[in-house]
Amino acid sequence: MNDVGPGEATSPASASPSGEPEPTSPDPVELSDEEAGAVVAAALAFAEAVPPGRDAPFRELAAAAHGGVVPAERMTDLERICVLALETGKARRLGGAETERLLTVVYRRTPGGRELTSSVADVNRVLARLTGRDLQSMRLSWRTPGRYALSVSVGGVDITLALEPEGPRVQSVQTG
């Protein structure tokens, strides 16, 4: 979450002539032997589960992971495999809690994992403002299955958190 105050602007590190940020390529992810084994197992399991002819990205990811480095061009596949294996319980079925732990560690080093870590940190910074204040109300609501809003009123501060499959985020903060 980028908090930009009135009159402030963010300035991208690099911008195109139109002023839009240039897309940056993610860094390759280096894997330990144990991490590589977990990624290879997950990628091959998904390669076996998809229809014939749609398994190539998963097999290419497995080959890259076996070599110990997942290149930038396979990052979307790496993120997809980690998320799917962790969300569906496939990681635990493949290798127990240790495979879950390894895929979580790998995912945290991907752009999606770093974004989720940042989002959680943003939510925690806002929640820290509530420490030591009296809780007035708390309410959980749902917009659609898998998308929830948690509204908290504490000591003159009203916070609404969005809890979504992509991760938590601060939806609004009101004081007064």
Question: Would you spell out the secondary-structure blueprint of this structure?
Answer:
Layout: E1 29-30, H1 33-49, H2 56-66, E2 69-70, H3 75-88, H4 90-108, H5 111-128, E3 135-144, E4 147-154, E5 157-164, E6 167-175
Antiparallel strand pairs: 1-2, 3-4, 4-5, 5-6
Helix pairs in contact: 1-2, 1-3, 1-4, 3-4
Low-confidence stretches: 1-17
Question: What's the overall geometry?
Answer: elongated
**How many strand segments?**
6
Q: What structural class do helix, strand and pairing data support?
A: alpha+beta
Question: What does this protein structure show overall?
Answer:
This protein is α+β, with helices and mostly antiparallel strands. The protein folds into two domains: 29-109, no CATH class; 128-175, no CATH class. 45% of the residues lie in helices and 22% in strands. It is built from five helices and six strands. It has helices at 33-49, 56-66, 75-88, 90-108, 111-128, and strands at residues 29-30, 69-70, 135-144, 147-154, 157-164, 167-175. Strands 3-4-5-6 form a four-stranded antiparallel beta sheet, with helices on one face. The chain has a two-stranded antiparallel sheet with strand order 1-2. A hairpin with a 2-residue loop joins strand 4 and strand 5 (157-164). Helix 1 (33-49) packs antiparallel against helix 2, helix 1 crosses helix 4 (90-108) and helix 3 packs across helix 4. The model is unreliable at 1-17 (pLDDT under 50).
